[in-house]
UniProtKB/TrEMBL annotation, chains A, B:
InterPro entries: Aromatic_deC (IPR010977), PyrdxlP-dep_de-COase (IPR002129), PyrdxlP-dep_Trfase (IPR015424), PyrdxlP-dep_Trfase_major (IPR015421), PyrdxlP-dep_Trfase_small (IPR015422), Pyridoxal-P_BS (IPR021115). Its cofactor is pyridoxal 5'-phosphate. This is Aromatic-L-amino-acid decarboxylase. One of its GO terms (biological process) is primary amino compound biosynthetic process. The keyword Ribosomal protein does not apply. The modification N6-(pyridoxal phosphate)lysine is found at K329.
Amino acid sequence: MGSLDTNPAAYAAFAADVEGFQPLNADDVRSYLHKAVDFVYDYYKSVESLPVLPGVEPGYLLRLLQSAPPSSSAPFDIAMKELREAVVPGMTHWASPNFFAFFPATNSAAAIAGELIASAMNTVGFTWQAAPAATELEVLALDWLAQLLRLPASFMNRTAGGRGTGGGVILGTTSEAMLVTLVAARDAALRRSGSNGVAGITRLTVYAADQTHSTFFKACRLAGFDPANIRSIPTGAETYYGLDPARLLEAMQADADAGLVPTYVCATVGTTSSNAVDPVGAVADVAARFNAWVHVDAAYAGSACICPEFRHHLDGVERVDSISMSPHKWLMTCLDCTCLYVRDTHRLTGSLETNPEYLKNHASDSGEVTDLKDMQVGVGRRFRGLKLWMVMRTYGAGKLQEHIRSDVAMAKTFEDLVRGDDRFEVVVPRNFALVCFRIRPRKSSIIAGEAEAERANRELMERLNKTGKAYVAHTVVGGRFVLRFAVGSSLQEERHVRSAWELIKKTTTEIVAGEDHK
Amino acid sequence: MGSLDTNPAAYAAFAADVEGFQPLNADDVRSYLHKAVDFVYDYYKSVESLPVLPGVEPGYLLRLLQSAPPSSSAPFDIAMKELREAVVPGMTHWASPNFFAFFPATNSAAAIAGELIASAMNTVGFTWQAAPAATELEVLALDWLAQLLRLPASFMNRTAGGRGTGGGVILGTTSEAMLVTLVAARDAALRRSGSNGVAGITRLTVYAADQTHSTFFKACRLAGFDPANIRSIPTGAETYYGLDPARLLEAMQADADAGLVPTYVCATVGTTSSNAVDPVGAVADVAARFNAWVHVDAAYAGSACICPEFRHHLDGVERVDSISMSPHKWLMTCLDCTCLYVRDTHRLTGSLETNPEYLKNHASDSGEVTDLKDMQVGVGRRFRGLKLWMVMRTYGAGKLQEHIRSDVAMAKTFEDLVRGDDRFEVVVPRNFALVCFRIRPRKSSIIAGEAEAERANRELMERLNKTGKAYVAHTVVGGRFVLRFAVGSSLQEERHVRSAWELIKKTTTEIVAGEDHK
């Protein structure tokens, strides 16, 4: 029994008791949703003043709320009260304009409204027939986004000439996009290497830069690749931590010479750690020599490529096999929304298709429709396309580009501020809206070496985060501990960036003064 | 350019243009959401009168909406107008009370409101630190549900004695639950069979009844199991299509004798095809002889086990390794929500854990918290626990049980109606709220044999579905084509079930008369 346990008897009687239990009574739905909308409105109005990172200890919520499920019903107000009093104080506020950690989870009015409607319609679009409009709107939204990204027609579901050979699907995470393409590439490599069943899997090799998200290495293991065959190609400052095609070629050639089968290369446009960019076209050219699948992970930075000035980061994409990017990161579409495009849909569905009797129907049999279950891990799926379509329909290319550019401009402002203070350094060139910086070691200073710099920067991060006025995360680049300042939370304005900078300067001064007295 | 293309100039100017683009302006959010709530209210009030299965042709929506993304912004009303006029007419209405296909996607006011708030907060809870309250509320909701299901404490995150060794996670689909447990079982089997890397994978075998959902066989392939080692154990009418433990033992023993490594058994409680129930305890006993992982897929029927009268279907669950069930099917929680419980969390995280520098934090290092990313395929994750917690908090065990019982009672009513008309037969015993029935072949009738029965039942299904007044799906059980009548859509009342039955009778009479004239 938690300390916030509320006595239902003190509240109005449960509304829907009169004619039996009606969980989806339209009046109740409207009433609950109006309460939820009021909460959301208040939340956005007040989130700026809430500590971004809460000062709670593990297990705090379990001590506040009752540990056993209630046996009787309670007015919805009780859940809302416990949400306000127990849950909100323990949230890390990703929606706060003072959130600069990880990558922002950008969002918009149109996306939230779209997701609400999808939740209420609650369709399960495993096949076209099970939800024709949901399937087609997802296909349309993906094709729209492909056009904004200027992807080649080979990645589109519909081209001027009718149904294309490529296509897309909306998944929950980049990891899933990696996993399903890894499996398709694995199966193709097994077939072409004449494997008896999966026996040849021990000979298949995969490649990615050492800056690639750790989830890639996990996805490889999920798909059954041998951990010993997962090549992490070292990167360095000379390529700004992007994948060096010469090193990739060397690794792939060495494996091929050893009788192994180079199967899959993952190139990243905008790494999580420091926003490094692997050269897509050059990677594709290397991989083509070995008939290996190339996937581009543009989870974060893909969104920027809707602006002509950033599109060059995707140059060569017409020669890769698949690309994924996540509008839930930087295209104002709430979680979850990862768009996967493949150049040859059949290579994916060949590995993922199922055809149980209970899902058979004329439309699927006709071959004229896309059954999206055959491009993902699971069977069931929400009405995933609605919110993404609503975002593009409402804001249009112009506002979406404005949003990207505004974030980049704010990041540039922050970068200039950092560069203007010689206690700090920007560690790698800023490509998008992420600034990797640190208090730099200086011989003349008390922060004389790398060890002292790491200690000072850790201290800076921890002090900042404890204030509740900013949340900044870290990474290690080239052996150096650096702070990641990611701009773009959807409520963020330039004043928040400037305030955070003031806080960083002030805290750094305190740290340096503290060091002086040691 | 689609036929429904709307001219933005005819609408009010875009609201947030005054001070730069504010995608999450609180006033806009409220305004958009109020429009969405009005839509949802109208939708629930009118969905009964909409054709359940739309009469649209593949590509219909692509012809209605513009094929290129808009370059400029448009008032949200335009997206809403196109939703109403182009999307809704092409939806299969899972929320319709006349929906009897597949399994219902049940829903409730509390769930939708919870999901709305989760979309607005838009946290990404990969680690505890990234969203402490979201992680802890998910853990709490899972423990509450475990108590409702009377799962043993070994599956709970928190027990009376503190943190347990087991625990749960909310995933998107049953397929993901199968995949992650298959991978954990695979890795354990590789280790104990002394495999060099994944070389031993060719010796690992997995087992499930032939009635198991096709996604299981897909998940096995995703995890790299050899298709030749996936055993589909035949079932028959003598066990009502449930798995026969003797046959399972025979298959596992034969494999073990052949030097293979029995690795994983999937038992289903409530199969998709006909709601067959595999005997959980007996399956666990057989698997234990081989040290194989046992997973229980109770996606649909697990929800019924919150009622004491259905709980016996889980007898023996204390001896299995994992169980998954999906509140998005039958516990009034909108998609997606699949709860996976494992008895030993470390067996799962051992295969799924990642620890990149940019996610490191004190809480994770302390070992005192659950980082839910290590129990799923992906890294990012929504605030998944909120809606499930709100459903239990608001309705309580009593209303949830009432909801299950009411659905089962309606299914019983339908079953009785079918049994009362000798043109029909109930093909397998009804276990939950699914009735599998058909027009039966009778020597004295024009539907004299199995071939004629299949033709007549297909005809019945197609005619029913074309009316728009009911949507019924089919399966094949024991070689017979049967109709699946799944009761429980959240707006459904007994009158809808009775109307559907009247329609079935009338249509059958027409078919039989038609056959007479052939």
